[in-house]
Amino acid sequence: MNAAARLGAYAAGLAVVFTGAFAAAGAVVPETTVSAWTQQAEGTQMAQHTDSGQDPVETTSGSHAEHTPQGVSREQSGYLLQEVSAPGTTGDAGELSLTITGPDGAPVTEFETSHGRQMHLIVVRSDGTGFRHVHPVMDEAGRWSLPWQWEAAGTYRVYADVVPVGAEQNLTLTRTVDVAGAFTPAAPEATATDEVDGFQVSVEGDLSAGSTSDLTISVTRDGQPITTLEPYLGAYGHLVALRAGDLAYLHVHPEGAEPVAGEVSGPDVEFATTAPTPGRYYLYFDFQVDGQVHTAQFALDTTGAADTRPSAGATAEGHGEH
């Protein structure tokens, strides 16, 4: 996979998809709901197979798969995310661990490096809060792990974004984790601005259902533009976009060339986006300044219109960042 394809895949997804249904405390996802997620994912894969006459592969903007939500299943192309182990309550220091098995049923131990990492792990609570993008370490047996502690109770989606050696595409495999404790779900309001760690971050542009449009994210501090955005995993910023309700992700492509190590940029980072359906979307923007990664969050409703066009040089994989 070449660098351009990986860059498009990385910013396209860090895919995060999960349900909006949850309980008020010690939330548990019913088995019937999990079954429905799996059936939806299998239906998506079957639709892609029927349209193309072959297994899903990388697709350019404007194709059927470009507008089909993905990353909703624990299994893809024979690869399976086994049960995720993590602390069961808030405040307990422990470990989050997982294993991916291949089509032969054995743990996968060989992965391609994509944007400096062999796995990009996304964790988000079912109401869109608690977003984390981290990078666990794998042992010789294929078990991935990292220290972990939950700050709030609820049902979380855990997404493993990987490229197993020999796989035809990025894989985004997902499982749910239930964390016991008092749980008050959030209801994010529509907003195009956020303040994080002293930075003011804003997004301009329209999300247009079914067509590609541009979003420009700007970073300032105390009214002054930040021109020292550093490359982070191969880009000046990464954008994850999730559809409110089921939180299916939409494809997001960074504009411009991949930065060279040591270069800085800013205050603007541009993305080409395509919303698969009308509605509200949650956006998470990672950026790095002075070696520190920050995450701004927005909520946008689809509005306006945009010309349908492919994103130059970008492809979307079943996946993630990735």
From TrEMBL:
Residues 42-76 are annotated as: Disordered. Residues 1-23 form the signal peptide. Residues 42-63 have a biased composition (Polar residues). The keyword Signal applies. Keywords: Signal. This is Heavy metal-binding domain-containing protein. It comes from Kocuria gwangalliensis. The lineage of its organism: Bacteria, Bacillati, Actinomycetota, Actinomycetes, Micrococcales.
